């Protein structure tokens, strides 16, 4: 978890790599090394629910 309001480095990283200064943002590192930036709250919730649900374990 990073606070872009408390640390300029985090804000700069988010804008440079993700393209937006918007939070919440989820940075997803895929197995192939690709980085995905997810900004929509409902998309983040759905991703986390699917990724970490009991049925995926």
Q: Secondary structure elements and their pairing?
A:
Blueprint: H1 8-18, E1 26-29, E2 35-38, H2 41-52
Antiparallel strand pairs: 1-2
Account of the 3D structure:
This protein is an alpha+beta fold. The protein has helices at residues 8-18, 41-52; strands spanning 26-29, 35-38. It has one domain (8-56). Helices cover 40% and strands 14% of the residues. The mean pLDDT is 92.
**What fraction of the residues are assigned to beta strands by DSSP?**
5-15%
The helix/strand class is alpha+beta
- Mean pLDDT across the residues is 92
Q: Could you give the count of β-strands?
A: 2
Give a short summary of the structure.
Helix content is 40%, strand content 14%. It has helices at 8-18, 41-52, and strands at residues 26-29, 35-38.
Descriptive key words:
2 strands, globular, 57 residues, two-stranded antiparallel sheet
């Amino acid at each position: 978890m990073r606070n872009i309001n408390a640390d300029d480095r985090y804000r700069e990283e988010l804008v440079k790599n993700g393209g937006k200064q918007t939070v919440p943002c989820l940075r997803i590192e895929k197995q192939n090394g690709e980085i995905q930036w997810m900004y929509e709250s409902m998309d983040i919730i759905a991703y986390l629910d699917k990724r970490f649900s009991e049925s995926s374990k």
